[in-house]
Amino acid sequence: MSSTSNYIPSENDLIQGCINGDRQMQELLYKRFAPKMYGVCLRYAGNTEDANDLLQEGFIKVYKNLAKFRSEGSFEGWIRRIFVNTSIEHFRKKVKLYNVTEAQENTLEDPDISVLDSLAEKDVIALVNELSPGYKTVFNMHVIEGYSHKEIASALGITEGTSKSQLARAKGVLKKSLEKKLNKTSNDNSQS
Amino acid sequence: MQNFQEKLYKYEATPPANVWEKISAELDANEAVKRIHPFRKRSRIVYYGLTIAASLIIIFVSSLFFNKKEPAGGEANSLASQQQNISIATGDDSMNSDVLASIIKQKDQPSTPESLQKKYITIKGPGGQSVKISSKAATLILSADNEYPPKPVWDKKINKWSEIMLSSTISPTATNLLDVVQISSLQTDN
Lengths: 192, 190
Prior knowledge:
The structure holds two protein chains of two kinds. Chain A is mainly alpha-helical. Chain A has nine helices and no strands. Chain A has helices spanning about 10-20, 25-45, 50-65, 75-95, 100-105, 120-130, 135-145, 150-155, 160-190. In chain A, helix 2 (about 25-45) crosses helix 4 (about 75-95), helix 3 crosses helix 4 (about 75-95) and helix 8 (about 150-155) packs across helix 9 (about 160-190). The longest helix of chain A has about 30 residues, at about 160-190. The radius of gyration of chain A is 20 Å and the shape is globular. The model of chain A has no long low-confidence stretch (mean pLDDT about 85). The chains are: A mainly alpha, B mainly alpha. The interface of A and B includes residues 26, 43 and 48 of A.
């Protein structure tokens, strides 16, 4: 790693080097994007072991598909999509979501979770990781990555209604967890 | 202050050092596979190319085979239409003569597969009926006008036929035929 520590190539050089199979360039690309992508993997996987596997699988896909990158959007955005898709594939293998009926969908509330803004990112991550894989994936895709329910439904092979209900339930669970956490904190403060 | 969405979107964490080692090892393994099978991708292209080429050859050969068969039917049709044309063209005796003369001219020319097909022709008979005759007979018919004198070989053939007819007991001779006519006329008178 020391051989690559002082050299900062341009994005194009980095891409071309990786396409040519230059191991030094591949390592530089990894070092540049690994922390951000590891953050994505941790959000979807929920544990470090699965996150490590996702990171490895995602970077191998990035190197294999670099020649297909057309510079139409941001390079980071392109890499992020690969990691999100890899995480979704991983999730789809493990969890089966059951579609909800329209009646069930209409009874669901949309809880306000803006109180999460007051928490530190570590605490928010910890709360999100407490969600079940189904809730967590839909929450990450819709709230964090900005996917529409239609896109989520298509990616996960579920209905839009199921996507909406999963999100509403995820928010409900997050709100309850947050209330518990805040109560505990206030209790701890009053005792001290 | 950032909202929680932004915080989560920009969330970063340092991955364990062994992840890159695993990635590097996997890339090495992929490179090794590429070195062992350098033409894997190309051989696939060659395989598909050969498949397409073989298919095209089969289609080409089949089309040649069927095209060869089709002209046989086509020739038969053209012959039939030619015969029809001749019979239409033979509206009178002079036309018959023209048709026959053209056939003889064709016969004098070196024989070709096409000319061999024109073995039979249809002409108009004395009663206006269509008569299908051998093109060989055209020579005989025309020889009656002395316009196209028959070849010596025909003289021999005609003599041979008349000998056969005269010697035959089954076919009536000219005398026997007259006898039959005479008897029938007598019966009518009675």
